[in-house]
Specification:
With about 375 residues, the protein is an alpha/beta fold. The chain contains 17 helices and eleven strands.
Length: about 375
């Protein structure tokens, strides 16, 4: 089987959770199923003649996804879609900063996305047919077109499918296989050592959606040290400056993005990992931190409760006091080994690979291959 992965053009320049998801899914499928080969190409006009199917990622950027979908349909190839979907209305109206926040409060969600499309088309270099269509047809319409054309959906959780049904009310039955977000157990799993854990940690891109600014505010007055690890895109320098300014009132250290080896060491120092995002599905850093011996504070938005159940501490992203209380509760509690065991048993990249291949074979009406003994 030969599969082509297609996703946003800046997947490697502006890295995020979807970057890790794509690379790790490819790595583990090819290692577990030697007869499956995967290529990655963001060309919306790619020649698909040598591929059995196309796997497309991310409904949140429909201006690109719809072009991949239509190219596959034109060339007679079936498509699987990793939805990576959440509706960000609340974030745009309450979690954004500056002028964008106030404009978003006065207009509809689709109008908001059209404005973003106009910015991308005329300012951010995304001057292509997909962005022009988003501006003309609307964000929701483009997402609905994508759903109608996809042969199989691969959401990260049941919550994504429920939200898709509620928003789009699709006429056809949605064929889907839940494929979990995951961790590399060989890198991050370790025994907790409470004696050397004395920091609160947050790993993630520095941006309003990840909500580090409210986390810094929540830490003010607490005796814990907060370490923020990540990087800010050039469009988020205003937010990073606001973080630095707020950090003067608390014990906060801001460090650059790290590789897996450095990150493993940082997780080993943390007693608590916090991701108070405006939405997450569920946040790869939370999964990594949990198996690395940290208690977890997670947002109530997204699919976090589907993954962590009662084994995490939850906070309201817009409520600084809620974040503070969750951090204190998690810091003062003993390590929750049940959460670590649950993630290791259910949310590893090997399982992600197996569920993804199960979906491919179902869609192509093929017998599932056996996992390689090697």
């Amino acid at each position: 089987m030969k599969v082509l992965y297609q996703t946003r053009y800046n997947i490697f320049e502006r890295k995020g959770g979807d970057t890790v998801q794509i690379l790790k899914t490819k790595e583990f499928i090819e290692s577990r199923y030697p007869h499956i080969r995967i290529d990655i190409d963001s060309d919306p006009h790619a020649d698909l003649s040598s591929y059995d199917m196309v796997h497309i990622f991310n409904m949140l950027r429909p201006q690109e996804t719809v072009l991949f979908m239509e190219n596959a349909r034109k060339q007679g190839k079936k498509t699987a879609l990793s939805t990576i979907f959440w509706r960000s209305t609340e974030f745009e109206r309450h979690g954004q900063i500056g002028l964008r926040k106030w404009v978003n409060r006065m207009i509809s969600y689709d109008s908001m996305e059209k404005l973003r499309g106009l910015y991308r088309y005329y300012v951010d270099g995304e001057k292509h047919e997909g962005t022009a269509r988003l501006i003309r047809a609307g964000y929701t319409r483009l997402q609905r077109d994508i759903l109608e054309q996809a042969d199989l959906l691969l959401p990260n959780g049941e919550g994504e499918i429920e939200l898709i049904r509620r928003i789009f009310r699709p006429e056809k039955q949605l064929e889907y296989v839940v494929v979990p977000n995951a961790i590399d157990a060989g890198i991050f799993a370790c025994e907790p050592d409470a004696q050397r854990r004395d920091i609160v940690l947050c790993v993630g891109r520095f941006e309003p959606r990840k909500n580090q600014l409210n986390l810094i505010r929540a830490m003010s007055g607490l005796s814990y040290k907060l370490v923020l690890a990540g990087t800010a895109h050039e469009t988020q320098q205003q937010y990073l400056n606001a973080m630095r300014k707020a950090a003067r009132t608390a014990d906060v250290e801001i460090v650059d993005e790290m590789d897996h080896v450095e990150l493993q060491s940082l997780y080993g120092r943390a007693r608590v990992h916090v991701l108070p995002s405006w939405y997450d599905t569920p946040g790869l850093a939370s999964l990594e931190a949990a198996v690395s011996g940290c208690n977890i504070v997670a947002t109530t938005r997204g699919t976090t409760k589907e993954y962590f159940g009662d084994d995490a501490y939850y906070c309201e992203p817009g409520d600084v006091e809620s974040i503070r209380k969750a951090v204190v509760a998690a810091y003062e509690a003993p390590f929750n080994r049940q959460l670590q065991e649950n993630i290791l048993s259910r949310y590893t990249w090997a399982q992600t690979a197996d569920r993804t291949v199960e979906g491919y074979c179902r869609m192509l009406d093929r017998k599932e291959p056996e996992v390689s003994a090697g």
